[in-house]
Design a protein that fits this description.
5 strands, mainly beta, two-stranded antiparallel sheet, single chain, globular, about 10% helix, three-stranded antiparallel sheet, binds zinc ion, 2 helices, about 100 residues
């Protein structure tokens, strides 16, 4: 197996200020997939609603979302239900997954 070279950065690379560590982690990654919503005119929704809202979250073109089986999660809901964390040391703390319906 040959090693691939890392991709070159875009020619118009522009640096932006980053506050804090923006990386996110999936403590139990088996069967989870990360996607970027395509700009194909299709309408796709997060499976969940915010507790005080009565609508599902529309995933916008370019939005990064997670999928478990057929269930799509916007990042806010994935974080709210404990499937995603910003705790880089989650593996030391034993992050517990909140129980949520995965249909
Ligand atoms: Zn959501």
């Amino acid at each position: 197996m040959s090693r691939r070279e890392p991709p070159l950065p875009p020619a118009s690379l522009k640096l932006h200020e980053v506050e804090g560590d923006q990386r996110r982690y999936v403590p139990h990654p088996d069967r989870w997939e990360a996607h970027i919503k395509a700009n194909d005119g299709s309408r796709e929704y997060c499976y969940f609603k915010n507790p005080d809202e009565d609508w599902f979250h529309l995933l916008l073109p370019g939005e990064i979302y997670l999928q478990y089986g057929e269930t799509k999660f916007c990042l806010n809901c994935a974080i709210r239900y404990g499937h995603v964390t910003d705790d880089r040391l989650y593996w030391q703390h034993g992050v517990r997954r909140k129980h949520d319906p995965l249909i």
